[in-house]
Amino acid sequence: MEKRKQEDILVLSTLNKTWIFDLDGTLVKHNGYKIDGHDTLISGAKEYIDSIPKDDHILILTSRTEEYKEATLDFLKNNGIRYNEIFFNIPMGERIVVNDRKPSGIDMAVAVNLDRDAGGFPGIRLEL
Question: Which residue in 25, 32, 16, 23 sits closest to 61, CA to CA?
């Protein structure tokens, strides 16, 4: 198993979570559906999704248009990618999450930026 640096590990609470993933460049090759004519999972993406507790909620965001919706949903289903909701036609700009901090000090929003198409999903440690 690959050894992770401390900064590659998310230290999270034991509360159920909402996970928000961008699709292209994070879970599948960026624009692979256009360039290659089909999607390709990024190394480790399925395993990472599979490692998320079943009671957590998974949202996928994509700027893909409705034209690619059916093919995208088929690809995710055929590859066993679990999610609760997927949103199409999302603007291509930054994803901004604004949330509160619990009185106990737990930040209720975490952001992870991965290099496009590189995978390298962070480890998870539950302890707060």
Answer: 23
